[in-house]
Amino acid sequence: MAIHKGQIWCLPQKSKPSPTRSGGGGVLAYITRDGNCAYNHDIFTRMAAGAEMNNTLDEYWDIVKRTFATEGEAYIFYKYARDKGFSVRKQKVRRAEHSGQLLFWRFLCSREGERETKWLKEDLSHRPRPLTRCVCQAKLDIRLDRTRGVWYVSSFVDEHNHCLATKDDVPFLWSHRKLRDFQKTEIMAMEAVGIRKHVIMDVLQCRYGGYSEVGIVRKNICGKNQTSGS
């Protein structure tokens, strides 16, 4: 007769799973000769993997069944990537042949594709930037349902072939940088009196509570032609 111990069903010693049977034949735990309850770690590992798989599938279906009022709304949604640790960029667009109406958008992981061959030559006059693209296949495709006037997810791939950014690094990814209008005004005012870029960044990080809260990196500070990631 099974013994209930600590919310785990333990079988008597005589029912100890055979080491030749995969996962102990599905037995979660058993009673050892000294009366203690021993756990079948293989079973628990498979259970944990199964639970993680179910969570992934739930998230996948939650995404593919969504609809959006505009393509911009879909892009903002895909920037859930902020929580996932990667940067997003827009790639492919299709329009209606005669009206020019947008019909299709593709949003990609920013590490999709490869660097152009001309930028890989060894005789370049300047030092090449570190490689950032690694043919990542993650993407979100949306199409316009012209009958209902809504955008729906036509394809979603969430498999990355690279390490994702940590929570602390996410704010520095390109698509998560955003320079607000009032910040532009502050920066231009400081530049006007000759304050250097690194000092401006120090002032901003003190004011907003850390470099990750500023919304830009130092190279984004470029006078009147300030730009921001969208």
Rounded to the nearest angstrom, the radius of gyration is 27 Å
Classify the secondary structure makeup into a structural class. alpha+beta
Question: How many structural domains?
Answer: 3
Q: Low-confidence parts, pLDDT < 50 over ≥5 residues? A: 1-26, 223-230
Largest sheet: 5 strands, antiparallel
Number of helices: 5
Give the strand order of the largest sheet, numbering strands 1, 2, ... along the chain: 5-9-8-7-6
What's the order of the H and E elements?
Answer: EEEEHEHHEEEEHH
Helix coverage percent: 25-40%
Distance between the termini: 64 Å
Average pLDDT reading: 69
Shape field: extended
What's the count of strands? 9
| Portion in beta strands | 15-25%
Pfam families: FAR1
Protein name: FAR1 domain-containing protein
Polypeptide structure, described:
This protein folds into 3 domains: 3-61, no CATH class; 66-165; 181-225. The chain has 5 helices and 9 strands. It is 26% helix and 20% strand. The strands form 2 sheets. A 5-stranded antiparallel β-sheet has the order 5-9-8-7-6. It is an alpha+beta fold. The protein has helices spanning 41-64, 71-78, 81-84, 181-192, 197-208, and strands spanning 3-5, 8-11, 29-31, 37-39, 67-68, 88-95, 102-109, 139-145, 150-157. This is FAR1 domain-containing protein.
Secondary-structure blueprint:
Elements: E1 3-5, E2 8-11, E3 29-31, E4 37-39, H1 41-64, E5 67-68, H2 71-78, H3 81-84, E6 88-95, E7 102-109, E8 139-145, E9 150-157, H4 181-192, H5 197-208
